[in-house]
Amino acid sequence: MVVCGLACWRCRWLLPLLLGLAIIMGIIALAGRGWLESESEPYVHQASLWESCTRGQEDLNWNCESLMDYGWGRAAAATYLVGFVILVICFALAVIAFSIEILRFNFVRGIGGLLFVVAAFQIIGLVIYPVKFAEEIPLTGDNMFSWAYGFGWASTVVVIGCAFFFCCLPNWEDEVLGNIKPTYYYSSPERAPYLN
């Protein structure tokens, strides 16, 4: 006997949990110094969303300049940060929405719409940064966009996935709330004689 169902009410915390994961990855991206790094030795360049640091091949101290002195640096940081703040708000709204017994599915769809706005802001910041950085900051040696930049993209991908789920969840309102009877499938009538 197999019970078919799209979702269960007990699994309602999965989406807020994924939003929490996106927040953690966003914090790592905002605080990490690995947006751009030298690819191989000598490691002479590293950058975060906020500053770019260089050093000589024999020098141990990093010389850092703020990217907030550039208009594109402020734009990249502002758009990513605005997206992150809206993401935190969406997380709080999702916790509230899934905590109450009578789930407001239009409210859930609104959270999905806000998550698309989050993704748009984060994508704008993540595209501005490498394009303008490569154009305006002199780079020496081989450089790569590294782990913190990757966490920024990972957070954005999770947000996009959650946005689709939040927007589509009201289509399965009855299944999620348990308002319909489960459908049981049997392989043959001989295996379930009590149904006759």
Automatic annotation (TrEMBL):
Keywords: Apoptosis, Cell adhesion, Cell junction, Cell membrane, Cytoplasm, Membrane, Transmembrane, Transmembrane helix
Recorded topology in the membrane: Multi-pass membrane protein
UniProt GO cellular component terms: cytoplasm; desmosome; plasma membrane
GO biological process: apoptotic process; cell-cell adhesion
Taxonomic superkingdom: Eukaryota
Bilayer-crossing regions: 12-32, 77-98, 110-131, 151-172
Location within or outside the cell: Cell junction, Desmosome; Cell membrane; Cytoplasm
Family classification: Belongs to the TMEM47 family.
Classification via PANTHER family: P53 APOPTOSIS EFFECTOR RELATED TO PMP-22 (PTHR14399:SF4), P53-INDUCED PROTEIN RELATED (PTHR14399)
Protein name per Swiss-Prot or TrEMBL: p53 apoptosis effector related to PMP-22
Taxonomy of the source species: Eukaryota, Metazoa, Chordata, Craniata, Vertebrata
Encoding gene per record: Perp_0
